[in-house]
Design brief:
Protein name: DUF2586 family protein
InterPro entries: Phage_HP1_Orf23
Pfam families: DUF2586 (PF10758)
Largest sheet: 6 strands, mixed
Distance between the termini: 73 Å
Order of helices and strands: EEHHHEHEHEEEHHEHEEHHEE
Structural class: alpha/beta
Shape: globular
Radius of gyration: 23 Å
Strand content: 5-15%
Length: 408
């Protein structure tokens, strides 16, 4: 028998629209090797920005090489200072769609225990965004075959990909059937002003930092977060903006189109097309991401990055719970030949106990488990267990009726 263990089948349509520790992230950068400091196709764990500097990734190296590797990493640690991140350098000439075929890169990725979040920045442009998206999804699909579940791959939605004259002409990202991939289309104009070479970049580091600071069930665009880092606990929200360092005092799409030039209709269209960008609420300070859209249909259960992360966490937990029962005895009801109730109760209890952790972590509101009792106890077919999560919702907008009255 193989060591597949427990196969988790992904169900869709229930919403209409592991390892329980949070995110384990890697940033893939296009860069050159640095002797004795940074090898290509090798994963390094960074606990703080000083670890990147020790590897030769510095503000000065960004300037000298016209790269943004240090910038992206500095944003990760600025926004999520209490987490770590891994970094893998690949040649600058690499395209995002190439990564799935690079055995050295995949080996480096596999060397990161429990990796579930990928960011990619500074690579050579693909022919169009569709090639980049589908190529990265194929990478995630290949990893999933070996039970490495990638919650989200944050890729660089470069300005060069936005070839349309108007927002309505931009590529429709929801058509790519790539539920793991979340392109980011935002940039901080202050960074673009540093060098013309940066004009088409997208703020992958900022997005990755905002993901890492959140629980897996939180939306990238939430104005506040559930648990803030110590230095920002007194704040009423969790904005990208930092006046002291000059970060995110304004925002633009990755083609340089300023947020303030986007009409309400433009913003609505960007959301319909599945774009993640940065903007500001009128009359409210600070800049925030718009959402956590993935490149799949809006009516899919997995059209938001947090839903994929929740499913993946559940899949990891269930698989780890059931593997100890592989090749164990299945008691048979002597009258029917079906699975005996005691065995069903045992399996149900194990999975139920394990999934309670997700309820306590507020990843899900509740769950249901069903094991069909009319399954033959003696069988070469996999035994089927159906698990469904009750998901919490996300507030995308409020509509308030406000008026006057003579009395209350």
């Amino acid at each position: 028998m193989s060591f597949t263990g427990a196969q988790i089948n992904k169900l869709d349509g229930g919403l209409g629209g592991g390892e329980p520790a949070g995110r384990v992230a890697v940033l893939v950068i296009g860069a050159g090797a640095i002797p004795d400091k940074l090898e290509l196709y090798k994963a390094y764990e960074l606990l703080q920005i000083e670890d990147a500097e020790a590897r030769g990734i510095t503000a000065e190296s960004d300037t000298a090489n016209q790269e943004l590797s240090y910038y992206h990493l500095s944003e990760i640690f600025r926004l999520s200072p209490e987490t770590s991140v891994h970094v893998i350098a690949v040649p600058k000439a690499t395209k995002e769609s190439d990564l799935k075929n690079l055995t050295e890169f995949i080996a480096a990725l596999r060397s990161i225990p429990n990796v579930n979040t990928i960011g990619v920045a500074g690579l050579t442009d693909d022919a169009d965004i569709g090639v980049a998206v589908t190529g990265m999804q194929l990478l995630a699909d290949d990893l999933k075959k070996d039970f490495i579940y990638i919650d989200v791959a944050v890729i660089e939605g470069k300005g060069a990909y936005l070839t349309g004259a108007t927002v309505a002409d931009y590529p429709a990202l929801r058509e790519y059937d790539s539920e793991t991939i979340m392109p980011v289309w935002a940039q901080d104009p202050a960074i673009v002003a540093l060098d013309d070479a940066y004009e088409n970049h997208a703020a992958v580091g900022s997005a990755l930092g905002m993901l890492l600071v959140r629980s897996i069930h939180e939306n990238l665009g939430s104005v506040d977060i559930e648990v803030k880092p110590k230095a920002r606990k007194a704040e009423q929200d969790y904005t990208l903006t930092d006046v002291k360092t000059g970060r995110w005092l304004s925002a633009a799409l990755s083609n340089g189109k300023k947020f303030e030039t986007l009409s309400g209709a433009d913003q609505k269209k960007l959301d319909e097309l599945g774009y993640n960008y940065v903007g500001v609420f009128a009359g409210y300070g600070g800049y925030f991401f718009s959402d956590s859209h993935t490149c799949t249909e809006a009516d899919s259960d997995y059209c938001y990055a947090e839903r994929n992360a929740i499913w993946n966490k559940g899949a990891r937990i269930i698989r780890a719970t059931l593997i100890p029962r592989i090749r164990s005895k299945v008691e048979s009801d002597p009258g029917t030949g079906y699975i005996k109730n005691t065995t069903i109760t045992d399996w149900d209890g194990r999975v139920r106990k394990a999934l309670e952790e997700m309820v306590r972590a507020r990843d899900i509101a509740a769950f249901d488990i069903y094991i069909n009792p009319k399954q033959a106890a003696v069988s070469t077919r996999p035994f089927n267990i159906k698990v469904q999560f009750v998901a919490d919702g996300v507030v995308h907008e409020f509509e308030v009726d406000l008026g006057f009255t003579r009395s209350v």
